[in-house]
Amino acid sequence: MSYIIEFFKNEIIVACLISWLIAQVLKVILVLITSKTIDLSRLVGSGGMPSSHSSLVSTLVFMTGRISGVSSPEFAVAFALAVIVMYDAANVRREAGEHAKIINIIIDQWVENDNLKIDKDLKELLGHTPFEIIIGAILGSIIGAFFPV
Predict the structure, then answer these.
(1) What is the pTM of this model?
(2) For the segment 32-86, what is each residue's pLDDT rounded down to a tens digit?
(3) Residue 93 has what pLDDT?
(4) How far apart are CA 149 and CA 67, in angstroms?
(5) What is the DSSP string of 58-95?
(6) 147: nearest Cα among 76, 51, 26, 66
(7) Side-chain half-sphere of 1: how many Cα atoms within 13 Å?
(8) Is 12:47 a contact under the CB 8 Å cutoff?
(9) If phi over 0 gives left and psi between -120 and 50 gives alpha, with beta otherwise, what is residue 45?
(10) Cβ–Cβ under 8 Å, residues 69 and 75
């Protein structure tokens, strides 16, 4: 039990979790505004506006810089991780989502023409647009800059 208490005493972890949660809640709110539906799956889903990945790692970078200093090895690791995560979200995962869209179209046409039954579509909302990443990074930077330490 003391490990759990110690875990939540770590300001960096708490700030990162809060940053992730705020980004995920914002996704639900934005879907509600744009489509007039409540989609609670956005609380845990990847992709969409803002990028919770970018928000979390930006908070990590800011908090690590504030606590350990920007010349520390910890900051360097946090920064490198943030670059990798944001690059992956904007490129690799986004491209995989685009591939999934095309594959789903092909499967739908194939099923329609050959009377096949395939129940599962590939997940299309995987990555982020550059704008979603930037907004997530701004959100995370604000949280990381102002979270009490």
Answers:
(1) 0.79
(2) 888 888 877 777 777 778 999 999 999 999 999 999 999 999 999 999 999 999 9
(3) 66
(4) 8
(5) HHHHHHHHHHH-TTSHHHHHHHHHHHHHHHIIIIIHHH
(6) 66
(7) 0
(8) no
(9) beta
(10) yes
